[in-house]
Design brief:
This protein has about 325 residues and is α+β, with helices and mostly antiparallel strands. It contains 7 helices and 23 strands. Strands 1, 6, 16, 17, 18, 19, 20, 21, 22 and 23 form a 10-stranded antiparallel sheet that branches. Strand 16 and strand 17 form a beta hairpin. It catalyses: D-mannose 6-phosphate = D-fructose 6-phosphate.
Length: about 325
């Protein structure tokens, strides 16, 4: 099949959520505390359905299982990635995620959670928590036990267009006034370290997961350097933000018309700004801000016309020598 697969977004209410998903993207959200748009997901805690076409109404998990040709027979027992848009109307809890090995053993076979963030928008002078200052596990535990959060937590300034790579084991928290597109492993495992003593709608303090958090946190903190690669093209540009074990993430900035190639197993794409048209050999498809779609394996080339920005990604095989060889070959071809 050489047709794009458009998906219906799914929404999750959160104590820290707001109304920007509705105001900016026109989504029909459940309330003014909607924190997450699950845009492309086959996770059991929230699955998207196909919006239109011959596969309309099917769950993404069903496509993964029943139509492996769409995904180039990618070697995974589950759909590997999860794409979200997060509206942090208030500070999120300070948290950390496990890696694959820990999650598989202690979270009933769940994947670990390495993720990354593209800052769509944020308040002026906004910041976020990204890392910590402890130099040993003992110091980390002591500062947590004594509630020395200002001394422990590392804050960084952010602005629209910033990109952050957040490997498992990284202490982090989005803060008030931030709108983010998140690309992550397909996991819903989060260990809360600190939650500002907030209470849920029943008046109870929200649960923390300190024992597991201490076990999985990287100490001392390691900042993963992001070195985006910019390519100017006829009609626009491409930024490659990160290419790592689990995923590669791009920004497509279309000014007039860009012709692109599909050289991954499949591509995921989200329109974060503007509007235009996706053109394939099968036909033309209108694109507008807030659309999310999958470009299947057999869709080799396509054009995007208009003035719009998209964040796109594809999964990678962790530690796969074959994947590294393919990547090397593509770079060599590009230099010919």
């Amino acid at each position: 099949m050489k047709k794009p697969i458009f998906l219906e977004p799914l929404f999750q209410e959160r104590i820290w959520g707001g109304n920007r998903l509705s105001k900016i993207y026109g989504y029909q959200t459940p309330s003014n505390q909607t924190g997450e748009c699950w845009a492309i997901s086959a996770h059991s805690n929230g699955q998207n359905v196909v919006r239109s076409g011959e596969l309309k109404g099917k769950l993404l998990e069903d496509l993964w299982r029943e139509y492996p040709d769409l995904f180039g027979h990618f070697e995974s027992d589950r759909f590997p990635l999860l794409i979200k848009i997060l509206d942090a109307n208030e500070d999120l809890s300070v948290q950390v995620h496990p890696n694959d090995d820990y999650a598989s053993e202690y979270e009933y076979g769940e994947l670990g959670k390495t993720e990354c963030w593209y800052i769509i928008d944020c308040d002026e002078n906004a910041d976020m928590i990204f890392g910590h200052h402890a130099q040993s596990k003992e110091e980390f535990i002591r500062m947590v036990d004594n509630g020395h959060w200002n001394d422990l937590l590392q804050r960084v300034k952010i602005k629209p267009g910033d990109f952050f790579y957040v490997p498992s084991g990284t202490i982090h928290a989005l803060c008030k006034g931030t709108l983010v597109l998140e690309t992550q492993q397909s996991s819903d495992t989060t260990y809360r370290v600190y939650d500002y003593d907030r209470r849920d709608d029943k008046g109870n303090l929200r649960e923390l997961h300190l024992e597991k958090a201490i076990e999985v946190t990287t100490v001392p903190h390691v900042t993963s350097k992001v070195e985006p690669a910019f390519i100017k093209m006829s009609g626009g540009s491409i930024i490659t933000f990160v290419e790592e074990d689990y995923f590669t993430v791009y920004k497509w900035d279309v000014q007039t018309e860009m012709e692109l190639m599909q050289d991954a197993h499949f591509l995921l794409a989200s329109v974060i700004e503007g509007e235009g048209t996706l053109c394939t050999e099968d036909g033309e498809y209108a694109l507008q801000k807030g659309d999310h779609f999958i470009l299947p394996h057999d869709l080799d080339s396509f054009k995007i016309k208009g003035t719009l920005q998209l964040i796109s990604s594809h999964p990678n095989y962790k530690g796969s020598q074959h994947r590294k060889m393919e990547s090397t070959a593509r770079r060599q071809m590009a230099n010919i």
